[in-house]
Amino acid sequence: MSSSPPPMEPSRKGPMRISVPDPVVREEHELPLFRDYGRYASLIAGTKDMRADATAQLSATVDHSETLYPSLISFVGQTGAGKSTLIKLLIDLMSDEGEAFPTPVVGAAGRDISTSEDVHLYLDPDSSESQAPLLFADCEGLDGGERDPVGAKLKKKLEKQAKQEAASGGRRRQRLKHTSERELIWADTPRKQSREFAVAHLYPRLLYTFSDVIVFVLKNPRVIEGVLERLVDWAQAALEKSSNQPVLPHAIIALNASENDIPEELWDVEHATKALMESLSRTIYHNATFKRYSQFWRERDRRIETVEQLVLSYYSSLRVIRIPTRGRPNLIHGQVKRLSDMMRWASKTSRERKAELRMLLDADEFQPYLQTAFDHFAMDLNTPFDFVQASFSNSPIPNDFGGNILKLAIQVMECWKDLARGPTIFEELSYLVASCIMLDAARHKIRGNDEQIFPQYIEHLDNALENFCDRHWPCEFIGPRGGRCVNVRSGHGAKGHQLRSGKLLAAGEYEANFDFVSYRQHFQENTYRKLKALRSLVSARIEEASVSEEHAAAEIHRESVLPAFFSHASRGDPQVFISHTICCSCLFEPPEHALPCGHIICTSCLKTYGKAHLKGHVEISECPLEKREAHFRKAWHVNLKPMNCGVRVLTLDGGGVRGIVELEILKQVEKELGGAINIQSFFDLIVGTSTGGIIALGLTARNWTLNECTTRFEELCGQAFTRRKGMNMPGISWIVSNYNHSIYETRPLQDALVEAFGDNQYLFGGKRDDPGSMDVKVAVTATSAAGQGVVLANYNRLCTEKLSYHFQRPDKLYGEVKTWEAARATSAAPTYFKPLHHEDSKQVYSDGGIYHNNPVHIADRERKLIWPHHQDQEPDILLSIGTLFCEKRKESKSAQWVGSSKGIVAHGRFLQKMAQDHLHTSLDSEKTWRDFINTRAPSGVNRGRYVRINPQVEEQPPKLDEVGKMRFLQDSARYLVGEDPKVKELAHRLVATCFYLDTLGDVKEDAYHEVFEVVGYFHCRFLAGEEVAKLGKYIKRHAQAGHDAHFLMKEEGRDTDLPQEIRLDARTINRMINHKVFYMDRPAQIRRNNKLSRTEIFCA
């Protein structure tokens, strides 16, 4: 379901639409199109706005993305029954004075043509500021026939006008824009291409599947029996078109425009419901529709004796409410309030049940589920939508040991299809799990015998098995005519036994001989026996070969377990076990390093099965998951940050064309460094937003020089900012931009990014010819459709806490973004460019600058997650670069999120709010920086580790899209930064960060335990080569006359003590320049009186 403003209708129509049939067929398409206009995202973002205090929301230190759990309430019924009227009444009566929420168009009385076309979405004012907002879906009338609704006629008229006003040269103006569209592949006959068919068959499948409540609206029906016929008919059309549906929707029958003179007790909901059920109780044996559906359920072992029992086979509950006609305002208000209360109760009940089943979706998860369903039902109306299958990509499993066992079990089940029983899968897994425990215990030097070690892992085994049995192992019931139930335990209660085709087999509870309670002990004992046997082999290997326990365990794991398991479990194709969220080699750590074969392994396994060299350089020639004969064509080389090195971080603000300022600042820094070493080589992590994100991707994923990056950036800006037709016409430009959701064409930007970054390179994972510059980690920020910050990155890390932003990492390659898509996502500034709809992951992304224009908070959090052993230490350097600022700038007053009397105006104001409120205030990146520094509160010499360069100008800097001012911006940045002493100081600090001390052995202590000593050597981060020579030249050039460069070491907090000096003498420097290597002849010795004291090291 989705969204868009009905074009220029003189009403209060809010913009959500699923567009189908006739009205949306384009000239080049024979099939009708299914369009999503992004209204869901707009409403959720608006809801978050209203929940947040303006000051707190725009502070980068506050989590402005509190989790929301929306409920969908669908209003369906006959044409002219008053669905739109009822929604309008709910919104108007529940709105506070002064609020203006979008409401539907209300048709003229007595008209038998639908007013609304397709499906439109509205926000309930009464719940708009709660954590569980209600969304009203207004569906086109059920019996409108083939006549176009009023809204569809208006849309056709406007599109016809747009064609007639097309510019010369045959290029026609764009129509009302959508975020995505799909051909309806099943619509291959005139009947299936009809509007009536879509209303009767497509809409029920979507609304019944995803709605928490169905409000069935009828207008004062004379034959009450017909009400329930329509209610059951509508549900039957969708009943078998979804499987593993956790909860059936609740049903509310709204008898609209009821006569005022009915008995008073019928206005009471409980009485009205009971009266209706009693009056129809015996019609189950006489009404043809009821008889047919009763027989349907009896054939599936469910006894149907009353109409109520029949209805509750399709719905979780049923309530009846009467809404009076005109003349009794107090009664109308009271009944509408009761309807609102009923909807909130039903939605709450539904959410609670889903939470019990661990299938409750938050606002961000709901969006990709919808997109997956859109794809599914656009392709095929008959195959059911499977919630469990959709959950694989949309509800990530925890990335701990238990979660990783579960993912592997699911993958084995998928490989073996229906060939394996549950016990067989976990029998197969137990050997690998035991081996992984053996390896982990050896790596972490966990002491003790098998009986002492194994219990430390039992909780993970239990979590994996219980989750698999509850949410992934299908019911084992087999029908009398064959066919196995596909519903899992958590998705079984709603419909009973169901075939893969969606057909209901029978009523009944979940059945399985394989369950957690009965198999738990067997799985534990089986794994323990194998662990014991493997550890015996390790002991024997240690004795035979005189190797360490870790080395022996790794060899046995590689030789006896991994290739055998993956060859057998994958049925001969280990490629099916490529995962982006688990290291299949050890099941403990996140995968970080993509190998030529496509498998991705963690750093520990890379070091274990590769050949590690000094300074973190690792060479690996084969994949540990495959047989040894499957060697790589050439050795794979990976550079790791040495353990004892500090972390160096660069952040780049967003700012449109002002990104050229960041490039000029970086050029000045690189120039100060001698211009011989690429600037990105001095950083471990680069994080960018918007154009800063594009620059970050160019420097890392493509390894561009600054000159090349500048050229590419100028070309990109020139191509990207291509205005739409009509944008230069007074009075028309605003309408055109809001029709299209953007000022600029999207295609030129996309083409420019594909040309710059290529169409085949994934940001993370995928087969590669070489590792590239993956040793420099890069992340860009974006904003999800539901208004949450998102990080797209070329690395992985483990995080077990809830963050204010989402780290996007799908399990499979098809869900990953390509590098150009990451650039497109981070730079999709509202009103300037349309959001990126990522088809494969079903995610929709907008500019990261909406919340994180200065991404320093995200960068600092990410560095701690990537390198957890450094999380309590200050970074070596954190450099934040901006795109100019002016103190004179006037802050715009943040307006409340309100609707409008016109649909297109409502959407336009929403976009303007995002662009002006969030972006405008976020562009005050100096405030973000000040907030960050105040939070970190570095003291003493640590203050110098945090550097911000953002030139201040006297007048307002150019706008984000003023391409003609780029040369001026370059010159200004060069002038403002060229002689800035901060740049010279920064260059010295970056050079200093290139060296680190690597200690040898353990800390030694004297006989009296009063003096503690550690010995180590200084090393250079750069491997032997040109960079070392160029670094040596820089040090020699800047050495003061008669004074060699040197390292200074002192105890932290002892500022009055003289530091210990280690000289970089001429011999060492000449060796760097002439032989391109760095090493010092003598070790450094550090002596302290406290074993736990910290030592600070400086380069001078």
UniProtKB/TrEMBL annotation:
Residues 583-627 form the RING-type domain. A motif (DGA/G) lies at residues 847-849. Residues 650-860 form the PNPLA domain. The keyword Hydrolase applies. A motif (GXGXXG) lies at residues 654-659. It comes from the Eukaryota. GO terms for cellular component: membrane. GO terms for molecular function: calcium-independent phospholipase A2 activity; zinc ion binding. Residues 1-20 are annotated as: Disordered. Signal peptide: none annotated. CDD domains: Pat17_PNPLA8_PNPLA9_like. PANTHER family: CALCIUM-INDEPENDENT PHOSPHOLIPASE A2-GAMMA. This is Uncharacterized protein. It comes from Salinomyces thailandicus. The lineage of its organism: Eukaryota, Fungi, Dikarya, Ascomycota, Pezizomycotina.
